[in-house]
Amino acid sequence: MVRTLLVRGLLVGLLAGLIAGGFAFAFGEPRVDDAIALEEAAAHATAPEHDHGEEAEVGRPVQKAGLFLATGLYGLAVGGVFALVFAGLRGRVGPGSDGRLALVAAGTAFIAVILVPFVKYPANPPAVGDPATINARTLLYLTMILVGLAATAIAVATARRVTVDPWARGVSAVAAFLVPVVAAWWLLPTVDEVPEGFPATLLWQFRLVSIGTQLVFWTAFGVLFGWVSDRAARRTIAPVPG
Length: 242
Description:
The protein is mainly α. It is 77% helix and 0% strand.
């Protein structure tokens, strides 16, 4: 069964990754082009004597094509991990239906792994960010991911202990999730490396597309994985014609 779920996760993850890649290509790449143009203009203005018309080692057409490769590989990786986690949760935590469990698990993963760190450390386009601080920023982002995962585990444990009333269970779980997350948002240092004069509209458009791409991926993945899982479950329990 685990092997079946793993194959399902890989295939669905690949498809969801390509769907997300299409969204990023349509709505994100124009923002990246604008940011790169600003970066090149700023570099030319500050050091025109060093500008000899050199082009990037990898041209933009190749980078745009590589976007689908990147999102496809991302989908494969996420799909494999999700399938293994789903196999562990199945029948133990969450809704009894495989389809609903897939939707809940995908939504929870999006909130814990994507949304929680994004609120504190949103994505930035090219020309934003100091290369010297990339290691520190990566560490802070990974810390927020760990906080999101830990908060999710605490929320699930709290929900399982509160069995008196469904509303009390839900409120307790949400509170148990938000307390460590909000504390981390408040305690961890803020990173603001947006250069002066960078267009605010372009910055927020890029960030919206960035989180939108993840939302498209996780929505597509949860819906497709849940749909396939429900169909597989119905075939398993269908009566055999006598």
